[in-house]
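W.,

You were right to be curious about this one. When I first looked at the sequence I had no strong expectations either way, so I just let the prediction run and decided to look at it fresh. Below is the sequence, 129 residues in total, followed by the output.
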Amino acid sequence: MVSWSGGGYPFNSARGPATTNHRSFGTDALTTTTEASGEGPAPFTGTWSLLSIHISANSLTTAALHFTSRIEGSAGNQDVNVAAGMAGEFQDASNTDSVTQGDKMAIREAVNAGGSGTEETAGVSWKYE
């Protein structure tokens, strides 16, 4: 069995309310508002789990953050929600996604509308085996 843990990949920019970005699975620091540009291929057939997000700063007053695994343009099972103003490490420790080699994968970050402020995602990590 092959196991691969990804991590430490920053989104590298502050975002405010009502924004959506995609981070490619397996490449450094790619953030794009277009999902097709943010997708990367699954390196092998396996299970994607333990989606973890590190928020280094969050001054959003009312807008929550929502991170979702994406496979072939559709929502996966992993889901990480972060309330307005919260920073630190957040993880979906219970859901997994089954993927086939070559499936297009991404992580979607959506900042809900409302309020003011910004957030900065310092890193994203996961387990893939």
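Here's what jumped out at me. The mean pLDDT is 83. And, maybe more interesting for your project: The domain at 4-128 is CATH 2.60.120 (Jelly Rolls).

Coffee later to discuss?

I.
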